[in-house]
Amino acid sequence: MTNPQTPLRIDIVSDVVCPWCVIGYRQLAQALEQTNTAYEIHWHPFELNPDMPAEGQNLREHIMEKYGSSKQESDASRARMNEAGSEVGFEFNFTDDTRMHNTFNLHQLLHWADQQGRMHELKQALFAAHFTNNRNISDNTVLADIAAEIELDRSEALAVLADQRFANEVRTAQQQWRQQGIQSVPSVIFNQKHLVSGAQGVENFKSILQQLSELPE
Asked: How far is residue 210's CA from residue 37's CA, in Å, rounded to a whole number?
């Protein structure tokens, strides 16, 4: 498909606490592998709940308040996510204690990891920590532990979170994407031109990749 000498640039605007972001990424990853597409992925910050307090909120309570969902609707939504995750090899473990978190610190930590070429690995580790292992990603010591588990420096991770040194960079990046019209995630931009929103499914992503491969350079 895509010329291996010119990898497809893929920008993904997402949040770690967005279940469809990890599902959509996994779907896209399978499509890329199945189509033998050369690519490079760049992750970008988005906060689903920028006004969420630092301690977070019970997820079911949050969804009911934000969307007016009933418990039955919440259960049905979780079942859909469990099934979609299973199809792409990702495990969700929702419980009555699962929480929604403020993710501003996570995005700062991801920005720091990107400076070491490790943002992608940290992003995947954070998805698993939150959705599979129900770890408290509102806790800076937990975030530092997760960084250390992928062999980033734990003490430096704690320092980054404590002094908020990348706060301005993250705010600026978020604002830039909002100015480009990004209001929901996941938002996937191919070659800085073609926007695709949401978890499209493996087959749809394969079709999109095929169409992109046929476009003139």
From this structure: 9
